[in-house]
Write a structure and sequence with these properties.
single chain; alpha/beta; D-Maltodextrin-Binding Protein, domain 2; nine-stranded mixed beta sheet; about 20% strand; globular; disordered N terminus
Length: about 350
């Protein structure tokens, strides 16, 4: 009888021990599962050369918040403004390699990788912002964005950098003749280089992070950028004259690494696409407001602002006509013809 009772007690203790081990294993498994789920969040590094207070950076942050919210933290977007991850060429190459997941890059720099994009930098192309939006958000814009996939990049849409204007530290510019011999920093774009050569200046391609010290040290005499870029980068400290040329409508492209894009689910792609469209609309609105406000700031900082008359602007336009002839042959008369028709 005693032996039977001992067996019962032994079995009872054995069952309790198994239950305890099972509960412990369950806790370990649960903890392990939670860690796995946490580690599955996808990191999306989003870089640009723009300063923290620019409309582009504000829109990048808006995009980041929406994507993280809509994916319940499944995609974590880290925003890197102020050239923290290098210049635009560095960023584009990062997208190709997959070391960078998203960026905002100018059409001029993008055209060095995807040549047809250069047609958007043809001088004096768009008469106003609404015309630019019509072209960029339409068939021509879609065609140019689609071509980026050949470079390992997904082109999402076009954001706004604004009309480019000329500044310099030497003299007031009112005609192409005034530009003769001036060293003007340009982006690394063939069409920009050719344009300034036609206008009589000495174009000097240079990465944007190098620009301020180059102006400060007199390596270049001037630069050309939208009001917002000139103001937020304090170029008024090293530039005295600004001519309202509106020589190029500058668009920036929101693009994503194809290597990263291919890791996303269809739902995640839809969320990113929708967030990108909303960020684009928001960015354009803020950019126009900032442009108006910062032009006033440039005046307050002592820059001499020169407005061109219709006749004076026409002289610049006529001077750059060889650019249209050259790039119609290089890119294709059909595509350039469609662009000019759409831009009317």
């Amino acid at each position: 009888m005693k032996r039977a009772i001992s067996k019962i007690i032994f079995l009872f203790c054995f069952v309790l021990m198994l239950a305890a081990c099972s509960e412990g294993n369950s806790e370990v498994l649960e903890t392990s599962t939670n860690k796995t789920n946490s580690s599955e969040a996808k990191v999306m590094k989003f870089a640009s050369i723009n300063t923290s207070d620019r409309s582009i950076t504000l829109a990048m942050k808006k995009f980041a918040e929406q994507v993280e919210k809509e994916t319940n933290g499944g995609i974590k977007v880290e925003v890197f403004p102020d050239s923290q991850l290098g210049g635009e060429r560095d960023n584009f190459e990062g997208l190709q390699l997959g070391s960078l997941q998203a960026s905002i890059i100018s059409t001029a720099v993008t055209s060095t990788f995807s040549p047809n994009m250069s047609i958007l930098d043809l001088p004096f192309l768009f008469k106003d912002n609404d015309t630019a939006y019509k072209v960029l958000d339409g068939e021509i814009g879609d065609t140019l964005l689609a071509e980026l996939s050949n470079q390992g990049v997904i082109g999402m849409n076009f954001w706004e950098n604004g009309y480019r204007h000329l500044t310099n530290s030497v003299k007031e510019i009112k005609s192409p003749e005034d530009l003769k011999g001036l060293k003007i920093r340009t982006m690394e774009s063939p069409i920009h280089l050719d344009m300034w050569k036609e206008l009589g200046a000495i174009p000097t391609p240079m990465a944007f992070p190098e620009l301020f010290p180059a102006l400060q040290q007199g390596i270049v005499d001037g630069q050309e950028n939208p009001y917002v870029v000139t103001a937020t980068n304090r170029f008024y400290e090293v530039q005295d004259h600004l001519t309202v040329t509106q020589h190029v409508y500058a668009a920036n492209i929101f693009m994503i690494s194809k290597k990263f894009w291919d890791t996303l689910s269809e739902e995640e792609k839809d969320i990113i696409t929708k967030a990108g469209e909303e960020a684009k609309v928001y960015q354009r609105e803020v950019e126009q407001q900032q442009a108006n406000d910062l032009l006033e700031l440039l005046k307050e900082k002592g820059m001499e602002i020169t407005e061109l008359s219709v006749e004076e602007k026409q002289k610049f336009t006529e001077k750059v006509q060889p650019i249209y002839e050259k790039y119609s042959k290089e890119i294709g008369e059909d595509l350039v013809g469609k662009l000019l028709e759409a831009a009317k």
